[in-house]
From TrEMBL, chains A, B:
The keyword Transferase applies. HAMAP family: TMP_kinase. Mg(2+) 4 binds at D21, S31, D62. The lineage of its organism: Bacteria, Pseudomonadati, Campylobacterota, Epsilonproteobacteria, Campylobacterales. Keywords: ATP-binding, Kinase, Magnesium, Metal-binding, Nucleotide-binding, Thiamine biosynthesis, Transferase. Its EC number is 2.7.4.16. Residues 19-124 form the PurM-like N-terminal domain. NCBIfam families: PRK05731.2-3. It comes from Arcobacter arenosus. This is Thiamine-monophosphate kinase. Pfam families: AIRS (PF00586), AIRS_C (PF02769). One of its GO terms (molecular function) is thiamine-phosphate kinase activity. The keyword ATP-binding applies.
Length: 274, 274
Protein backbone atom coordinates (compact mmCIF):
# COMPACT_ATOMS: atom_id res chain seq x y z
CA UNK A 1 0.00 0.00 0.00
CA UNK A 2 1.44 3.39 -0.88
CA UNK A 3 1.72 6.10 1.78
CA UNK A 4 -1.19 8.16 0.52
CA UNK A 5 -3.52 5.16 0.73
CA UNK A 6 -2.09 4.30 4.16
CA UNK A 7 -2.92 7.83 5.36
CA UNK A 8 -6.47 7.65 4.00
CA UNK A 9 -6.95 4.22 5.59
CA UNK A 10 -6.43 5.78 9.05
CA UNK A 11 -9.71 7.66 8.62
CA UNK A 12 -11.86 4.70 7.53
CA UNK A 13 -13.10 4.05 11.05
CA UNK A 14 -13.96 7.73 11.61
CA UNK A 15 -16.08 8.14 8.52
CA UNK A 16 -18.70 6.42 6.46
CA UNK A 17 -18.39 9.05 3.73
CA UNK A 18 -14.94 8.33 2.30
CA UNK A 19 -14.95 6.23 -0.85
CA UNK A 20 -16.49 8.39 -3.57
CA UNK A 21 -15.30 11.31 -5.68
CA UNK A 22 -16.93 13.57 -3.12
CA UNK A 23 -18.66 13.13 0.24
CA UNK A 24 -22.45 13.12 0.13
CA UNK A 25 -24.11 14.72 3.17
CA UNK A 26 -27.82 15.65 3.09
CA UNK A 27 -27.97 16.15 -0.70
CA UNK A 28 -24.78 18.22 -0.68
CA UNK A 29 -21.61 16.83 -2.26
CA UNK A 30 -18.26 18.05 -0.95
CA UNK A 31 -15.29 17.40 -3.21
CA UNK A 32 -11.73 18.47 -2.59
CA UNK A 33 -8.65 18.08 -4.80
CA UNK A 34 -5.17 19.45 -4.65
CA UNK A 35 -3.33 20.82 -7.67
CA UNK A 36 0.29 21.32 -6.63
CA UNK A 37 3.33 22.49 -8.57
CA UNK A 38 5.82 19.68 -9.20
CA UNK A 39 3.18 17.14 -8.13
CA UNK A 40 0.38 17.71 -10.66
CA UNK A 41 2.12 20.12 -13.01
CA UNK A 42 5.40 21.78 -13.85
CA UNK A 43 5.13 25.53 -14.17
CA UNK A 44 6.67 25.71 -17.65
CA UNK A 45 3.95 23.41 -19.00
CA UNK A 46 1.01 25.71 -18.31
CA UNK A 47 0.07 29.36 -18.27
CA UNK A 48 -1.15 30.61 -14.89
CA UNK A 49 -4.66 30.87 -16.26
CA UNK A 50 -4.53 27.25 -17.45
CA UNK A 51 -3.35 26.14 -14.01
CA UNK A 52 -6.25 27.87 -12.26
CA UNK A 53 -8.73 26.56 -14.83
CA UNK A 54 -7.53 22.98 -14.48
CA UNK A 55 -7.50 23.19 -10.64
CA UNK A 56 -11.19 24.14 -10.80
CA UNK A 57 -12.17 21.67 -13.53
CA UNK A 58 -10.70 18.56 -11.90
CA UNK A 59 -12.86 19.33 -8.86
CA UNK A 60 -15.97 20.10 -10.89
CA UNK A 61 -15.41 16.79 -12.66
CA UNK A 62 -15.94 14.99 -9.32
CA UNK A 63 -19.23 16.82 -8.77
CA UNK A 64 -20.54 16.03 -12.27
CA UNK A 65 -19.62 12.35 -11.94
CA UNK A 66 -21.79 12.21 -8.81
CA UNK A 67 -24.65 13.94 -10.67
CA UNK A 68 -24.28 17.03 -8.51
CA UNK A 69 -24.45 20.66 -9.67
CA UNK A 70 -21.54 22.75 -8.35
CA UNK A 71 -22.65 25.87 -6.46
CA UNK A 72 -19.78 27.18 -4.33
CA UNK A 73 -16.00 26.97 -4.18
CA UNK A 74 -13.37 27.56 -1.52
CA UNK A 75 -9.79 28.09 -2.69
CA UNK A 76 -6.55 27.58 -0.81
CA UNK A 77 -3.89 29.23 -2.94
CA UNK A 78 -0.22 29.29 -1.98
CA UNK A 79 1.47 31.84 -4.23
CA UNK A 80 5.23 32.10 -4.87
CA UNK A 81 6.74 35.30 -3.45
CA UNK A 82 8.18 36.34 -6.82
CA UNK A 83 4.80 36.48 -8.62
CA UNK A 84 3.91 39.93 -9.93
CA UNK A 85 0.48 41.53 -9.62
CA UNK A 86 -0.01 40.69 -13.30
CA UNK A 87 0.69 37.01 -12.53
CA UNK A 88 -1.77 37.08 -9.65
CA UNK A 89 -4.41 38.72 -11.81
CA UNK A 90 -3.96 36.08 -14.53
CA UNK A 91 -4.23 33.30 -11.96
CA UNK A 92 -7.41 34.76 -10.45
CA UNK A 93 -8.89 35.20 -13.95
CA UNK A 94 -8.60 31.45 -14.50
CA UNK A 95 -10.55 30.69 -11.33
CA UNK A 96 -13.15 33.33 -12.10
CA UNK A 97 -13.67 32.23 -15.72
CA UNK A 98 -14.46 28.65 -14.75
CA UNK A 99 -16.62 29.81 -11.84
CA UNK A 100 -18.66 31.90 -14.26
CA UNK A 101 -18.90 29.12 -16.87
CA UNK A 102 -20.36 26.76 -14.26
CA UNK A 103 -22.39 29.27 -12.21
CA UNK A 104 -20.16 28.79 -9.17
CA UNK A 105 -19.67 31.42 -6.50
CA UNK A 106 -16.20 31.55 -4.91
CA UNK A 107 -17.13 32.07 -1.26
CA UNK A 108 -13.82 31.99 0.54
CA UNK A 109 -10.57 30.24 1.22
CA UNK A 110 -7.07 31.13 2.25
CA UNK A 111 -4.21 32.80 0.41
CA UNK A 112 -0.60 32.53 1.53
CA UNK A 113 2.91 33.20 0.29
CA UNK A 114 4.91 30.04 -0.50
CA UNK A 115 7.92 28.71 -2.43
CA UNK A 116 5.71 27.22 -5.18
CA UNK A 117 2.18 27.44 -6.54
CA UNK A 118 0.02 24.99 -4.61
CA UNK A 119 -3.74 25.01 -4.99
CA UNK A 120 -6.46 23.14 -3.14
CA UNK A 121 -10.08 23.56 -4.17
CA UNK A 122 -13.22 22.53 -2.29
CA UNK A 123 -16.38 22.42 -4.38
CA UNK A 124 -19.84 22.35 -2.78
CA UNK A 125 -22.50 20.87 -5.05
CA UNK A 126 -26.17 19.98 -4.83
CA UNK A 127 -27.86 16.80 -5.97
CA UNK A 128 -31.21 15.05 -5.65
CA UNK A 129 -29.94 11.75 -7.01
CA UNK A 130 -26.28 11.17 -6.22
CA UNK A 131 -24.39 8.54 -8.19
CA UNK A 132 -21.88 6.57 -6.12
CA UNK A 133 -19.12 4.08 -6.88
CA UNK A 134 -21.01 1.45 -4.93
CA UNK A 135 -24.07 1.29 -7.19
CA UNK A 136 -22.99 -1.27 -9.82
CA UNK A 137 -25.41 -4.22 -10.07
CA UNK A 138 -24.50 -7.65 -11.45
CA UNK A 139 -24.95 -7.73 -15.26
CA UNK A 140 -24.68 -3.91 -15.52
CA UNK A 141 -22.89 -2.68 -18.59
CA UNK A 142 -19.80 -0.57 -17.89
CA UNK A 143 -18.73 2.29 -20.13
CA UNK A 144 -16.49 5.31 -20.35
CA UNK A 145 -16.88 8.47 -22.39
CA UNK A 146 -14.51 9.96 -24.97
CA UNK A 147 -11.02 8.76 -25.83
CA UNK A 148 -8.53 7.46 -23.32
CA UNK A 149 -4.78 7.35 -23.77
CA UNK A 150 -3.86 10.80 -25.05
CA UNK A 151 -3.18 12.25 -21.59
CA UNK A 152 -0.63 9.56 -20.78
CA UNK A 153 1.11 10.15 -24.11
CA UNK A 154 1.00 13.92 -23.65
CA UNK A 155 2.39 13.71 -20.14
CA UNK A 156 5.26 11.52 -21.42
CA UNK A 157 5.96 14.07 -24.16
CA UNK A 158 6.01 16.94 -21.67
CA UNK A 159 8.33 15.01 -19.35
CA UNK A 160 10.64 14.46 -22.34
CA UNK A 161 10.65 18.21 -23.03
CA UNK A 162 8.48 17.93 -26.14
CA UNK A 163 5.47 20.02 -27.09
CA UNK A 164 1.87 18.81 -27.14
CA UNK A 165 -1.26 20.02 -28.91
CA UNK A 166 -2.79 23.18 -27.46
CA UNK A 167 -6.10 21.33 -27.48
CA UNK A 168 -4.82 18.47 -25.32
CA UNK A 169 -7.13 17.29 -22.56
CA UNK A 170 -4.01 17.36 -20.38
CA UNK A 171 -4.24 21.16 -20.47
CA UNK A 172 -7.96 21.28 -20.01
CA UNK A 173 -10.30 18.38 -19.28
CA UNK A 174 -13.40 18.23 -21.48
CA UNK A 175 -16.20 17.79 -18.97
CA UNK A 176 -19.58 16.49 -20.06
CA UNK A 177 -21.96 18.04 -17.54
CA UNK A 178 -25.09 18.40 -19.71
CA UNK A 179 -24.78 14.86 -21.03
CA UNK A 180 -24.35 13.32 -17.61
CA UNK A 181 -27.11 15.27 -15.87
CA UNK A 182 -29.52 14.06 -18.60
CA UNK A 183 -28.32 10.46 -18.69
CA UNK A 184 -28.00 10.08 -14.91
CA UNK A 185 -31.49 8.74 -14.30
CA UNK A 186 -30.51 5.61 -16.27
CA UNK A 187 -27.16 5.23 -14.45
CA UNK A 188 -26.47 2.93 -11.47
CA UNK A 189 -22.92 3.96 -10.48
CA UNK A 190 -20.43 6.55 -11.65
CA UNK A 191 -17.09 8.25 -11.06
CA UNK A 192 -14.59 10.21 -13.09
CA UNK A 193 -11.34 8.84 -14.50
CA UNK A 194 -8.62 10.85 -12.80
CA UNK A 195 -5.95 8.23 -12.05
CA UNK A 196 -6.66 5.91 -15.01
CA UNK A 197 -9.42 3.51 -16.09
CA UNK A 198 -8.05 0.43 -14.29
CA UNK A 199 -7.29 2.35 -11.06
CA UNK A 200 -10.90 3.55 -11.04
CA UNK A 201 -12.29 0.11 -11.91
CA UNK A 202 -10.49 -1.34 -8.89
CA UNK A 203 -12.14 1.31 -6.72
CA UNK A 204 -15.57 0.56 -8.20
CA UNK A 205 -15.00 -3.16 -7.80
CA UNK A 206 -14.28 -2.69 -4.09
CA UNK A 207 -17.19 -0.36 -3.45
CA UNK A 208 -19.75 -2.30 -5.52
CA UNK A 209 -18.37 -5.77 -4.70
CA UNK A 210 -18.36 -6.84 -8.34
CA UNK A 211 -15.83 -7.93 -10.95
CA UNK A 212 -15.82 -7.23 -14.69
CA UNK A 213 -16.00 -9.38 -17.80
CA UNK A 214 -14.22 -7.39 -20.51
CA UNK A 215 -15.54 -7.63 -24.09
CA UNK A 216 -12.07 -6.96 -25.56
CA UNK A 217 -8.52 -6.56 -24.35
CA UNK A 218 -7.70 -3.03 -23.22
CA UNK A 219 -4.11 -1.91 -23.81
CA UNK A 220 -2.08 -0.40 -20.96
CA UNK A 221 -1.91 2.85 -22.98
CA UNK A 222 -5.67 3.20 -22.52
CA UNK A 223 -6.13 1.39 -19.20
CA UNK A 224 -3.42 3.25 -17.27
CA UNK A 225 -3.80 6.79 -18.63
CA UNK A 226 -4.52 9.26 -15.83
CA UNK A 227 -5.71 12.88 -15.89
CA UNK A 228 -8.37 12.03 -18.48
CA UNK A 229 -11.41 13.26 -16.54
CA UNK A 230 -13.75 11.17 -18.66
CA UNK A 231 -16.84 9.63 -17.06
CA UNK A 232 -16.95 5.97 -16.04
CA UNK A 233 -20.41 4.59 -15.29
CA UNK A 234 -22.63 1.51 -15.18
CA UNK A 235 -26.21 0.95 -16.25
CA UNK A 236 -28.74 -1.81 -16.68
CA UNK A 237 -28.68 -3.38 -20.19
CA UNK A 238 -32.34 -2.43 -20.59
CA UNK A 239 -31.36 1.29 -20.66
CA UNK A 240 -28.79 0.97 -23.43
CA UNK A 241 -30.95 2.57 -26.12
CA UNK A 242 -31.86 5.59 -24.05
CA UNK A 243 -28.25 6.09 -23.03
CA UNK A 244 -26.96 5.83 -26.59
CA UNK A 245 -29.61 8.29 -27.75
CA UNK A 246 -28.63 10.89 -25.13
CA UNK A 247 -24.94 10.38 -25.94
CA UNK A 248 -25.65 11.00 -29.61
CA UNK A 249 -27.65 14.14 -28.81
CA UNK A 250 -24.69 15.57 -26.83
CA UNK A 251 -22.07 14.31 -29.32
CA UNK A 252 -20.47 12.15 -26.62
CA UNK A 253 -18.52 9.01 -27.59
CA UNK A 254 -19.56 5.99 -25.50
CA UNK A 255 -17.29 2.98 -25.02
CA UNK A 256 -19.21 0.05 -23.56
CA UNK A 257 -16.36 -2.30 -22.66
CA UNK A 258 -17.43 -4.72 -19.91
CA UNK A 259 -20.20 -6.33 -17.94
CA UNK A 260 -20.30 -6.57 -14.15
CA UNK A 261 -20.04 -10.09 -12.76
CA UNK A 262 -19.27 -11.78 -9.47
CA UNK A 263 -15.64 -11.36 -8.58
CA UNK A 264 -12.98 -8.78 -7.95
CA UNK A 265 -10.92 -6.54 -10.18
CA UNK A 266 -7.35 -5.54 -9.40
CA UNK A 267 -5.49 -2.86 -11.32
CA UNK A 268 -2.04 -3.82 -12.61
CA UNK A 269 -0.98 -0.39 -13.88
CA UNK A 270 2.15 1.18 -12.50
CA UNK A 271 1.67 4.23 -10.29
CA UNK A 272 0.60 7.23 -12.34
CA UNK A 273 2.41 9.91 -10.36
CA UNK A 274 5.42 11.52 -11.98
CA UNK B 1 -1.63 46.22 -0.60
CA UNK B 2 0.21 42.92 -0.21
CA UNK B 3 -0.11 40.20 -2.86
CA UNK B 4 -2.39 37.97 -0.82
CA UNK B 5 -4.87 40.82 -0.32
CA UNK B 6 -4.56 41.73 -4.02
CA UNK B 7 -5.47 38.15 -4.96
CA UNK B 8 -8.48 38.10 -2.62
CA UNK B 9 -9.64 41.48 -3.98
CA UNK B 10 -10.02 39.91 -7.45
CA UNK B 11 -12.91 37.83 -6.10
CA UNK B 12 -14.85 40.67 -4.43
CA UNK B 13 -17.09 41.17 -7.44
CA UNK B 14 -17.82 37.45 -7.76
CA UNK B 15 -18.92 36.95 -4.18
CA UNK B 16 -20.95 38.51 -1.42
CA UNK B 17 -19.70 35.95 1.09
CA UNK B 18 -16.04 36.90 1.46
CA UNK B 19 -15.28 39.03 4.52
CA UNK B 20 -15.82 36.79 7.54
CA UNK B 21 -13.87 33.98 9.19
CA UNK B 22 -16.02 31.60 7.19
CA UNK B 23 -18.66 31.88 4.47
CA UNK B 24 -22.26 31.65 5.68
CA UNK B 25 -24.62 29.90 3.23
CA UNK B 26 -28.06 28.72 4.38
CA UNK B 27 -27.08 28.26 8.06
CA UNK B 28 -23.91 26.41 7.07
CA UNK B 29 -20.52 28.01 7.67
CA UNK B 30 -17.62 27.00 5.43
CA UNK B 31 -14.17 27.87 6.73
CA UNK B 32 -10.88 27.01 5.11
CA UNK B 33 -7.33 27.65 6.33
CA UNK B 34 -3.95 26.50 5.17
CA UNK B 35 -1.24 25.28 7.53
CA UNK B 36 1.95 25.01 5.49
CA UNK B 37 5.49 24.05 6.43
CA UNK B 38 7.88 27.03 6.33
CA UNK B 39 4.87 29.36 6.10
CA UNK B 40 2.98 28.65 9.32
CA UNK B 41 5.46 26.39 11.05
CA UNK B 42 8.97 24.95 10.89
CA UNK B 43 9.05 21.19 11.23
CA UNK B 44 11.55 21.14 14.11
CA UNK B 45 9.19 23.29 16.23
CA UNK B 46 6.33 20.79 16.38
CA UNK B 47 5.65 17.07 16.59
CA UNK B 48 3.58 15.72 13.69
CA UNK B 49 0.65 15.23 16.01
CA UNK B 50 0.89 18.86 17.16
CA UNK B 51 0.94 20.02 13.53
CA UNK B 52 -2.21 18.09 12.68
CA UNK B 53 -3.95 19.26 15.86
CA UNK B 54 -3.13 22.91 15.22
CA UNK B 55 -4.19 22.67 11.54
CA UNK B 56 -7.60 21.49 12.75
CA UNK B 57 -7.92 23.90 15.68
CA UNK B 58 -7.19 27.08 13.72
CA UNK B 59 -10.07 26.15 11.43
CA UNK B 60 -12.41 25.19 14.27
CA UNK B 61 -11.57 28.56 15.83
CA UNK B 62 -13.18 30.27 12.81
CA UNK B 63 -16.36 28.23 13.22
CA UNK B 64 -16.64 28.95 16.95
CA UNK B 65 -16.11 32.69 16.42
CA UNK B 66 -19.08 32.66 14.06
CA UNK B 67 -21.17 30.77 16.65
CA UNK B 68 -21.24 27.68 14.44
CA UNK B 69 -20.82 24.08 15.56
CA UNK B 70 -18.29 22.16 13.42
CA UNK B 71 -19.69 18.96 11.90
CA UNK B 72 -17.49 17.81 9.01
CA UNK B 73 -13.93 18.30 7.78
CA UNK B 74 -12.16 17.84 4.46
CA UNK B 75 -8.36 17.55 4.54
CA UNK B 76 -5.84 18.26 1.82
CA UNK B 77 -2.58 16.81 3.07
CA UNK B 78 0.65 16.98 1.08
CA UNK B 79 3.08 14.56 2.72
CA UNK B 80 6.88 14.56 2.24
CA UNK B 81 8.12 11.46 0.41
CA UNK B 82 10.53 10.53 3.21
CA UNK B 83 7.84 10.19 5.91
CA UNK B 84 7.59 6.70 7.39
CA UNK B 85 4.33 4.90 8.06
CA UNK B 86 4.89 5.74 11.74
CA UNK B 87 5.08 9.43 10.83
CA UNK B 88 1.90 9.18 8.79
CA UNK B 89 0.11 7.39 11.61
CA UNK B 90 1.17 10.07 14.11
CA UNK B 91 -0.04 12.80 11.76
CA UNK B 92 -3.40 11.13 11.21
CA UNK B 93 -3.78 10.63 14.99
CA UNK B 94 -3.59 14.38 15.46
CA UNK B 95 -6.42 14.99 13.01
CA UNK B 96 -8.51 12.18 14.48
CA UNK B 97 -8.02 13.29 18.10
CA UNK B 98 -9.29 16.79 17.43
CA UNK B 99 -12.11 15.48 15.26
CA UNK B 100 -13.23 13.28 18.16
CA UNK B 101 -12.89 16.05 20.74
CA UNK B 102 -15.19 18.29 18.70
CA UNK B 103 -17.56 15.64 17.31
CA UNK B 104 -16.34 16.24 13.75
CA UNK B 105 -16.46 13.62 11.01
CA UNK B 106 -13.60 13.71 8.48
CA UNK B 107 -15.52 13.08 5.27
CA UNK B 108 -12.87 13.37 2.58
CA UNK B 109 -10.10 15.33 1.00
CA UNK B 110 -6.99 14.66 -1.00
CA UNK B 111 -3.62 13.19 -0.07
CA UNK B 112 -0.52 13.69 -2.20
CA UNK B 113 3.24 13.26 -2.05
CA UNK B 114 5.15 16.56 -1.83
CA UNK B 115 8.51 18.09 -0.83
CA UNK B 116 7.09 19.48 2.43
CA UNK B 117 4.13 19.03 4.77
CA UNK B 118 1.36 21.31 3.58
CA UNK B 119 -2.13 21.04 5.03
CA UNK B 120 -5.38 22.72 4.07
CA UNK B 121 -8.51 22.07 6.09
CA UNK B 122 -12.12 22.88 5.21
CA UNK B 123 -14.55 22.81 8.14
CA UNK B 124 -18.31 22.63 7.60
CA UNK B 125 -20.31 23.95 10.56
CA UNK B 126 -23.93 24.60 11.43
CA UNK B 127 -25.41 27.67 13.06
CA UNK B 128 -28.81 29.17 13.74
CA UNK B 129 -27.44 32.58 14.69
CA UNK B 130 -24.20 33.38 12.89
CA UNK B 131 -22.00 36.14 14.27
CA UNK B 132 -20.34 38.25 11.58
CA UNK B 133 -17.64 40.92 11.53
CA UNK B 134 -20.19 43.41 10.26
CA UNK B 135 -22.49 43.41 13.30
CA UNK B 136 -20.84 46.05 15.53
CA UNK B 137 -23.26 48.83 16.51
CA UNK B 138 -22.21 52.32 17.61
CA UNK B 139 -21.54 52.39 21.37
CA UNK B 140 -20.97 48.62 21.50
CA UNK B 141 -18.28 47.54 23.92
CA UNK B 142 -15.39 45.62 22.32
CA UNK B 143 -13.54 42.84 24.11
CA UNK B 144 -11.14 39.98 23.64
CA UNK B 145 -10.71 36.83 25.68
CA UNK B 146 -7.60 35.54 27.44
CA UNK B 147 -4.10 36.95 27.26
CA UNK B 148 -2.53 38.41 24.14
CA UNK B 149 1.16 38.76 23.46
CA UNK B 150 2.64 35.39 24.41
CA UNK B 151 2.37 33.95 20.88
CA UNK B 152 4.41 36.81 19.38
CA UNK B 153 7.08 36.36 22.06
CA UNK B 154 7.08 32.59 21.62
CA UNK B 155 7.38 32.86 17.84
CA UNK B 156 10.34 35.23 18.27
CA UNK B 157 11.98 32.77 20.65
CA UNK B 158 11.49 29.88 18.23
CA UNK B 159 12.90 31.94 15.36
CA UNK B 160 15.93 32.68 17.53
CA UNK B 161 16.41 28.95 18.15
CA UNK B 162 15.21 29.10 21.78
CA UNK B 163 12.74 26.84 23.55
CA UNK B 164 9.25 27.80 24.66
CA UNK B 165 6.86 26.41 27.26
CA UNK B 166 5.20 23.16 26.29
CA UNK B 167 1.92 24.77 27.30
CA UNK B 168 2.33 27.71 24.87
CA UNK B 169 -0.78 28.68 22.89
CA UNK B 170 1.58 28.79 19.91
CA UNK B 171 1.64 24.98 20.04
CA UNK B 172 -2.04 24.61 20.68
CA UNK B 173 -4.68 27.37 20.67
CA UNK B 174 -7.01 27.34 23.69
CA UNK B 175 -10.43 27.55 22.08
CA UNK B 176 -13.42 28.63 24.14
CA UNK B 177 -16.33 26.90 22.40
CA UNK B 178 -18.66 26.34 25.37
CA UNK B 179 -18.21 29.92 26.60
CA UNK B 180 -18.90 31.44 23.21
CA UNK B 181 -21.92 29.30 22.34
CA UNK B 182 -23.49 30.37 25.65
CA UNK B 183 -22.58 34.05 25.43
CA UNK B 184 -23.38 34.43 21.73
CA UNK B 185 -26.99 35.53 22.17
CA UNK B 186 -25.69 38.73 23.81
CA UNK B 187 -23.04 39.31 21.10
CA UNK B 188 -23.40 41.62 18.07
CA UNK B 189 -20.23 40.85 16.09
CA UNK B 190 -17.34 38.41 16.45
CA UNK B 191 -14.21 36.94 14.91
CA UNK B 192 -11.10 35.15 16.10
CA UNK B 193 -7.68 36.77 16.50
CA UNK B 194 -5.46 34.93 14.05
CA UNK B 195 -3.30 37.71 12.59
CA UNK B 196 -3.26 40.02 15.64
CA UNK B 197 -5.73 42.23 17.53
CA UNK B 198 -5.16 45.38 15.44
CA UNK B 199 -5.26 43.48 12.11
CA UNK B 200 -8.62 42.05 13.13
CA UNK B 201 -9.93 45.39 14.41
CA UNK B 202 -9.19 46.93 11.00
CA UNK B 203 -11.21 44.15 9.37
CA UNK B 204 -14.10 44.68 11.80
CA UNK B 205 -13.92 48.45 11.31
CA UNK B 206 -14.28 47.99 7.53
CA UNK B 207 -17.10 45.47 7.75
CA UNK B 208 -19.08 47.25 10.48
CA UNK B 209 -18.22 50.81 9.35
CA UNK B 210 -17.22 51.90 12.85
CA UNK B 211 -14.10 53.17 14.61
CA UNK B 212 -12.97 52.49 18.16
CA UNK B 213 -12.37 54.67 21.24
CA UNK B 214 -9.77 52.81 23.30
CA UNK B 215 -9.99 52.98 27.09
CA UNK B 216 -6.20 52.57 27.47
CA UNK B 217 -3.15 52.39 25.27
CA UNK B 218 -2.47 48.92 23.92
CA UNK B 219 1.20 48.04 23.43
CA UNK B 220 2.41 46.64 20.10
CA UNK B 221 3.39 43.43 21.95
CA UNK B 222 -0.31 42.83 22.60
CA UNK B 223 -1.84 44.57 19.57
CA UNK B 224 0.30 42.88 16.92
CA UNK B 225 0.58 39.35 18.29
CA UNK B 226 -0.75 36.81 15.81
CA UNK B 227 -1.65 33.11 16.15
CA UNK B 228 -3.48 33.82 19.43
CA UNK B 229 -6.87 32.37 18.42
CA UNK B 230 -8.63 34.31 21.16
CA UNK B 231 -12.14 35.64 20.54
CA UNK B 232 -12.78 39.27 19.64
CA UNK B 233 -16.39 40.42 19.95
CA UNK B 234 -18.74 43.34 20.53
CA UNK B 235 -21.89 43.66 22.60
CA UNK B 236 -24.36 46.26 23.78
CA UNK B 237 -23.38 47.83 27.15
CA UNK B 238 -26.71 46.65 28.57
CA UNK B 239 -25.50 43.02 28.31
CA UNK B 240 -22.26 43.54 30.23
CA UNK B 241 -23.42 41.82 33.42
CA UNK B 242 -24.70 38.72 31.66
CA UNK B 243 -21.53 38.43 29.62
CA UNK B 244 -19.26 38.82 32.66
CA UNK B 245 -21.30 36.20 34.51
CA UNK B 246 -20.96 33.65 31.69
CA UNK B 247 -17.23 34.42 31.38
CA UNK B 248 -16.79 33.79 35.11
CA UNK B 249 -18.74 30.52 34.89
CA UNK B 250 -16.40 29.28 32.12
CA UNK B 251 -13.25 30.71 33.72
CA UNK B 252 -12.66 32.95 30.72
CA UNK B 253 -10.72 36.23 31.12
CA UNK B 254 -12.53 39.14 29.44
CA UNK B 255 -10.68 42.28 28.37
CA UNK B 256 -13.15 45.07 27.55
CA UNK B 257 -10.85 47.60 25.91
CA UNK B 258 -12.84 49.92 23.61
CA UNK B 259 -16.15 51.35 22.55
CA UNK B 260 -17.36 51.54 18.96
CA UNK B 261 -17.74 55.06 17.57
CA UNK B 262 -18.06 56.76 14.21
CA UNK B 263 -14.82 56.57 12.30
CA UNK B 264 -12.30 54.16 10.91
CA UNK B 265 -9.55 52.11 12.43
CA UNK B 266 -6.29 51.34 10.65
CA UNK B 267 -3.80 48.80 11.90
CA UNK B 268 -0.21 50.01 12.14
CA UNK B 269 1.40 46.68 13.00
CA UNK B 270 4.09 45.32 10.75
CA UNK B 271 3.20 42.22 8.75
CA UNK B 272 2.93 39.17 10.97
CA UNK B 273 4.27 36.59 8.52
CA UNK B 274 7.70 35.18 9.19
Amino acid sequence: MNKEDYFIKQFDKNSSFIGDDGALVDNIVYSNDAFFEDVHFKKNWFSLKQIARKAMLVNISDAIAMNAVPKYALLTVAIPKEYSKKDIKELSQGFLEVAEEYGIEIIGGDTISNIKLDISVTIISKTNDAKLRSGIKKDDLICYTGDLGTCKKDLEKLLAGKKISKKSKFYEPKLKADFFYEVSKYVNAAMDISDGLFFELERMSKQSKVGFKFFDDISPEIACSGEEYELLFSFSPKNINKIEEIAKKHDVILNIFAKANKGKFRCDCKNHHF
